[in-house]
UniProtKB/TrEMBL annotation:
UniProt-listed Pfam families: Rhomboid
InterPro entries recorded: Peptidase_S54_rhomboid_dom, Rhomboid-like_sf, Rhomboid_protease_S54
Gene Ontology biological process: proteolysis
Residues in Peptidase S54 rhomboid domain copies: 126-257
GO cellular component: membrane
Name recorded for this polypeptide: Rhomboid family intramembrane serine protease
TM stretches of this protein: 167-185, 191-210, 217-237, 243-260, 267-287
Similarity section: Belongs to the peptidase S54 family.
A GO molecular function held by the record: serine-type endopeptidase activity
Places the protein is found: Membrane
Keywords tagged on the record: Hydrolase, Membrane, Protease, Transmembrane, Transmembrane helix
Membrane-protein topology: Multi-pass membrane protein
Gene3D superfamilies (UniProt xref): Rhomboid-like
Length: 292
């Protein structure tokens, strides 16, 4: 007669020792009871393995060169900026010079007023919004055409390399940098407008990115040189905005693409904060000169 061996008992759930189970996690092979089971494509997994897999999935998400998230539409922000500029341009066509005077970049100027005193307008009179609103303002079709062409050509590549949030920061800081240098150096009564400061910031950022990736710099430098020649030879162009945007865009982009991976985010935030602080201090000094 054959000798019979006793059947081994069921394993106990690794989380609930009072519960027997015949199911094991397909990832870690630990016994799990129905309360700990999470359905998987094959069998069941324990909750701890599921949480670990989710964390690893988040950590493994692809990132841009500057550390931003890779998105499906790498030109979404560029399209939004194009649309915003177009909407403001249509508003200018509808309202005429009134909107230009209300939103354009001007330092300190008299706008009519009464027989007793003029009505003062400008950044020096507390209208700080002009530093940014002027960057979305165009009055001539050729002006918005050139600026939006530059945005369309340069924007998607930079947005793809930096990520959406960083690209927005680059664009807005470049626009503010251009307006600030105009505020510092141009005639305080001069009214200026346009996205040229931001676009020149994109030129500078594209050159920095090309250098970071060891691409041929000659095409972008040639295009930049042509635009600088136009800036200083054509009348009616606020060269201060172009240079201010170019410098700020280059500095911000350098911090974004050259920062070491381990300290990338703190360096990027610090660089943007320092640029914003420099813009604020410069505007305060200029304001004190004009009305202090």
């Amino acid at each position: 007669m054959a000798q019979q061996h006793p059947q081994p008992g069921l394993a106990r759930c690794y989380q609930h020792q009072d519960r027997e189970t015949g199911v094991r996690c397909t990832r870690c092979d630990r016994p799990i009871c129905p309360a700990c089971m999470v359905p998987a494509s094959v069998g069941y997994q324990c909750r701890q393995c599921v949480r670990g897999a989710a964390g690893a999935s988040r950590a493994a998400r692809p990132r841009t060169l500057a550390g931003g998230r890779v998105t499906g539409d790498s030109g979404l922000v560029t399209k939004v900026l194009l649309a915003l500029n177009a909407v403001v341009f249509l508003a200018v066509l509808a309202r005429g010079d009134e909107l230009v005077v209300d939103l354009g970049m001007v330092g300190h100027a008299a706008d009519g007023g009464t027989i007793f005193a003029p009505h003062w307008i400008g950044v020096a009179d507390g209208e700080w919004y002009r530093l940014l609103t002027s960057a979305f303002l165009h009055q001539e079709i050729w002006h918005i055409g050139f600026n939006m062409l530059g945005l369309w050509l340069l924007g998607p590549q930079l947005e793809s390399a930096l990520g959406r949030v960083r690209f927005v920061a680059l664009y807005l800081l470049s626009a503010l940098g251009g307006s600030t240098l105009s505020y510092l150096l141009a005639d305080e009564r001069q009214l200026s407008l346009g996205a040229s400061g931001a676009i020149f910031g994109l030129f500078g950022a594209t050159a920095v990115l090309a250098r970071r990736l060891n691409y041929d710099l000659r095409p972008i430098l040639l295009l930049l040189a042509i635009n600088l020649v136009i800036t200083f030879t054509w009348s009616g162009i606020a060269w201060q905005a172009h240079i201010g945007g170019l410098v700020v865009g280059s500095v911000v982009a350098a911090a974004m693409v050259w920062a070491p991976r381990r300290t990338r985010l703190p360096i990027q935030i610090a660089a943007c904060a320092l640029v914003a602080l420099a813009i604020l201090v410069a505007c305060l000094v200029r304001t004190n000169q004009l009305v202090g």
